[in-house]
Every structure is written in C-alpha cells, then in structure tokens.
Write a structure and sequence with these properties.
CATH class of the largest domain: Alpha Beta
CATH topology of the largest domain: Rossmann fold
Shape: globular
Structural class: alpha/beta
C-alpha cells in the first residue's frame, strides 16, 4: 500500500514506522528539525520490546512531491487541521482514503469540508508516544486503532486498511459506531489532558489527590451526559476505574502536558472546547469543562514565570 503520514510526529511516526517495516511504501510528511533528522538518520522508534529503525525514511515537507497515495494517516494536531488538509490535496486521487487519527470529535467535519465527501474515515488512536528528540519517537503505552465509516457500513476499504495495520502487528478494530468510540475516548481526554497540563503531573500522580480525582470524574461525567444527549453509546462504564490508574498510559505524560512544557499550542479547543460547544447545542451544562478550557487557555496566553532559586 502507498501511504502518506500527514503530520509524522509522535503518533504518526509510530504507526508510519510500523507500516513501513511491514513493507508498505510510507512517506513521512513533517517539518523542522524532526524532518531533517529523519532525512539524515532515519526514524527511530524506541520501544520497551525492541527498537525499530526505518532507514532510509522517505520524508518531506511538500505533499506535492509525494503524489497520489492509497491512504493518508492524518495525525496533525487539531489546531492545524484546516491548514494541513488544504496542503495535502496533492496526495488525493479519486479513491484515496484519509484516516483521521486526531484527538477530538470535530476534525472530520473540517476535513470533509476541505477535501470533499468520500475521502474521510474517522479513527481513534490508542497509543502513548512522544518525540523525545528530532528523528526519535519513544513509544510508552498501547498501540492500537479503531476505525469505521461514519455511516456504520463495514466497507471493503475499512477492512483493507484494518488488514494493513494488522499485517504490521498493530491491532485494528473496525467499528460500526465510530462516533461513539471517538466520544468514549473524549471522556478520558477532556478530563486528564487539561488537568495534567495545569498541574504538570502524570495521570497517575494527579489521581493520588482525592480532590483532583473527583474533579476529573466530574469532567468525565459531563462528557458522558453530552454524548448521551447526542444519542451516542457512551455510559458511566467509560469512566476509568481505579484498576487502570497504574497502567503505562497513566504513567506517561499526556500530549497536552507535552505541548505546555514545550510552549506549543494545545488542543484544548478540540477537547474541552468541543464538549462545551456540544453542551450548548444539547442544553447540557458543562461548567467543569468550561473552567478547564478557560484555565488552559489562560496558561497558554500567560505561561507561569519560573521562580528564582534561594
């Protein structure tokens, strides 16, 4: 399969490297020092089960140099969705599928608006990964996806994409209700991403505080109430229980904490912001998510000064 990874950072780099190692023709689309490192040294994925080096890594910052592909893994930050979607038009042929593996529940609408009907397939990535230095992705937790047509049809193209991932050793499940799956992930993301970005803690450390744990659960219950008002299959069972707290994912830094630490724009609008907007549409109150949205936004606009030492 001929594949382009639009936004080959942590998530895109991890999945792209695995697909390349399985024999697919994979083009990494990135920029800056990460792109230059991939061009010069290849892409290294560090993994507790053994490292993976893709060398040479076919990498560029210009989608027009790649041409039409069978599949695009769309893994850019949600803050850059429209810009990246516009730039990637040269990748699309009549049958090109665009698998959206971004955080949030609104990106597919933007992609469809820019690219047209018929290309976009919603997906969910369950993976912990971080670009720890240019050209190096450190895989910390999980590594699977779910995907499905918005119509619920189990089409030949989603089965073909799922098989490509499975052949690369990545578990891929085909969902007949991918929208609910995306909201179930949002239950976790809308709570723990902003909370950890504000506290500077991992999920595990944040949950050792009873007050913070209750705040997270309150935020999650709001997401569930909104999803249910939308008629989606999301329930209290989607609130992570205590036995999941010590998982590798809980020990890892969330993507929003990584963004805050590096001074990058956060995805707060795609997470808490999406909950608030949907709450307004459905008449469901979302005060906790509104507060988290405001606080993360304020932190981004006014980063805290470092206190001098004694």
């Amino acid at each position: 399969m001929r594949i382009a990874v639009m936004g080959a950072g942590a998530v895109g780099g991890y999945f792209g490297a695995r697909l390349a190692a399985a024999g697919n023709e994979v083009h990494m689309i990135a920029r800056g020092p990460h792109l230059e490192a991939m061009r010069q040294r290849g892409l290294l994925v560090k993994n507790p089960d053994g490292d993976l080096l893709v060398k040479p890594a076919t990498a560029t910052d210009d989608p027009s140099k790649v041409g039409e592909v069978d599949l695009v893994l769309f893994t850019v930050k949600s803050t850059g969705t429209r810009e990246a979607a516009t730039a990637m038009r040269p990748l699309l042929g009549p049958r090109t599928a665009v698998l959206c593996l971004q955080n949030g529940v609104e990106n597919e609408d933007v992609l469809t608006e820019v690219l047209g009907v018929g290309h976009v397939i919603p997906g969910v990535a369950y993976v912990g990964a971080e670009v720890t230095e240019p050209g190096v992705v450190t895989h910390t937790a999980m590594g699977r996806i779910a995907l499905g047509e918005r119509s619920g049809e189990v089409s030949e193209r989603v089965k073909g994409i799922s098989k490509a991932f499975e052949d690369a050793g990545i578990h891929a499940s085909v969902s007949s209700d991918i929208t609910s799956a995306k909201w179930r992930k949002l239950v976790w993301n809308a709570a723990f991403n902003p909370i950890t970005a504000l506290t500077g803690q991992t999920v595990f450390d944040a949950l050792q505080d009873d007050d913070v744990r209750e705040l997270a659960h309150a935020a999650m219950r709001e997401v569930i109430a909104v999803a249910q008002a939308l008629g989606l299959a999301v329930s209290e069972d989607d609130v992570p229980k205590g036995e999941n707290v010590r998982s590798q994912k809980a020990m890892s830094k969330t993507s929003m904490l990584q963004d805050v630490e590096r001074g990058r724009p956060t995805e707060i609008e795609a997470l808490s912001g999406a909950v608030v907007r949907a709450g307004h549409r459905t008449g469901v109150p979302t005060p906790i998510n509104a507060a988290l949205r405001a606080l993360v936004g304020a932190r981004a606009r006014h980063p805290p000064a470092h206190c001098p030492g004694p």
